[in-house]
């Protein structure tokens, strides 16, 4: 089942895939990484002017990685804001998604001059939130006092 945004994008020949609706009734769309730049600008111009949240997750062990964008269309005088969820999948072997930090400020991916870890020390080797991560076989001894 397609939502109103999916129909709107299809009428304009914009490549995407409808993933249906989440439990809150928010339309979810899949966009290819190579189309993400242009569709991000189109969504912003269309009125999705607020990036409510952005996250990434590991789809399955050895499978794809996903970047998820929850966009909101905020308009003056409208009580119920329109929302959409965009998912951009990328291959684990080369996990790259074009950055749209210039559309919704503070989003960073490729070519960011100061991209750094926020949950792990910079010296940590590997990506422990990925499903294919193998934990190192050691334990750190902590001082109790």
Automatic annotation (TrEMBL):
InterPro entries cross-referenced by the UniProt entry: NADH_quin_OxRdtase_su_C/D-like, NADH_UbQ_OxRdtase_30kDa_su
Name of a matching Pfam family: Complex1_30kDa
MF-aspect GO terms: NADH dehydrogenase (ubiquinone) activity
Gene3D superfamilies on file: NADH:ubiquinone oxidoreductase, 30kDa subunit (3.30.460.80)
Domain NADH:ubiquinone oxidoreductase 30kDa subunit intervals: 30-105, 107-135
Family according to the record: Belongs to the complex I 30 kDa subunit family.
Listed name of the protein: Predicted protein
């Amino acid at each position: 089942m397609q939502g109103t945004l999916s129909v709107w994008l299809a009428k304009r020949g914009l490549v995407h895939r409808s993933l249906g609706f989440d439990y809150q009734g928010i339309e979810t769309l899949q966009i290819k990484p190579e189309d993400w730049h242009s569709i991000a600008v189109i969504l912003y111009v269309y009125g999705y002017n607020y990036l409510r949240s952005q996250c990434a997750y590991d789809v399955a062990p050895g499978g794809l990685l996903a970047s998820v964008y929850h966009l909101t269309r905020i308009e003056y005088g409208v009580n119920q804001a329109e929302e959409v969820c965009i998912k951009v999948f990328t291959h684990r072997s080369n996990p790259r998604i074009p950055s749209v930090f210039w559309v919704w400020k503070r989003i960073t991916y490729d070519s960011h001059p100061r991209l750094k870890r926020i949950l792990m020390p910079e010296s940590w080797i590997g990506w422990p939130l990925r499903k294919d991560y193998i934990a190192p076989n050691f334990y750190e001894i902590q001082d109790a006092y």
